[in-house]
Amino acid sequence: MKRLVAGIMTATLVAMTGAALAAPPADTLAEVKKKGVLVAGVKDSLPPFGYIDEKSRQIVGYDIDFVNAIARKLGVKVELKPVTSASRMPQLQEGNIDLIAATMTKNPERAKQIDFSHTYFFTGQKFITRKGSVKSLKDLEGKKIGTAKGSTSEQNAKKALPSSTVLSFDDYPQAFLALQQGKVAAVTTDEAILAGILAKAPNKERFEIPNVQISDEPYGIGMRKGDKAFVDFVNKTILEMEKSGEAKKIFDKWFGPHTQFHLKRNFKITADK
Fold first, then answer.
1. Phi and psi at residue 126, in whole multiples of 5°?
2. CATH superfamily of 124-217
3. Where in the chain do CATH 3.40.190.10 domains reside?
4. What are the pLDDT digits (tens) for 63-120?
């Protein structure tokens, strides 16, 4: 019996020690500088924010360029970890990544759980539909709408279209495949993401993004709650990027008139109130 109790106590102590080792750092800024690597949670199938380049086989995109700029400022290397809309916050809170740069909308519910940087991208939630099928929101009432699990798009669609059925997929490309197959009447998320999906579609002439918007979507870089030194550093960095013109340069690289994702830059990075 004593041997059994001792064994249980030892196992418990090992488990507690392992848990302590796995705990996220209290000061991410100091820890990242110490280890020399910034681990970022990013999308890997969502052009032009984060996707695998066919030639280099590396993850590239708008979000990745911001991560690289932050890492350069820190003087560290970058490790990119693919995340989904549903997995990104748990990955951050468990300490598996240092920050989230993955098309993440800032909202009060999320802000209770993690901290956000100033807005570094601004867009609005719209729909991809079959060409000519939707002129107003009313045309989508009672229909099946596709989106991604764990996204704000999921919640916004349910609020805007209470009579519709919102079907949630692992990612937006899967939702778009459902639209192509006629399983949903529309795919909804932020316009910038929809533009990326549509640009890559082989049969894009059959689809469109109607001028039907249901929300504003400000993107922030996500960091652990209360990690003030790191949040301050990231905010200072992206404000400097705006001032120097680097932020606009990154936008033009991915969304400028010469790109297939052409959007107008209707925002500047400023200190959030």
1. -135, -160
2. Periplasmic binding protein-like II (3.40.190.10)
3. 26-120+220-255, 124-217
4. 999 999 999 999 999 999 999 999 999 999 999 999 999 999 999 999 999 999 999 9
Q: What is the pLDDT of residue 31?
A: 96
Count of CB atoms situated within 10 Å of the CB of 27: 13
**Distance between CA atoms of residues 133 and 119, nearest Å:** 33
Closest CA to 171 of 87, 65, 58, 109: 87
Please say if the pLDDT value at position 10 is more than 50.
no
Residue 16's pLDDT is 44
Rounded Cα–Cα distance for residues 158 and 151 (Å): 12
In which band, very low, low, confident or very high, does the pLDDT at 25 lie, cut at 50, 70 and 90? confident
What is the CATH number that goes with domain 26-120+220-255? Answer: 3.40.190.10
40 CB-near residues (< 8 Å, 6+ apart):
64, 67, 78, 79, 80, 81, 97, 98, 99, 100, 101
The bridge status of strand 99-100 relative to strand 37-42 is: parallel
> How far is residue 212's CA from residue 183's CA, in Å, rounded to a whole number?
21
Helices (H), 55-214: 62-74, 88-93, 108-111, 152-160, 172-180, 191-200
**The dihedral of CA 272, 78, 114, 214: what is its sign?**
positive
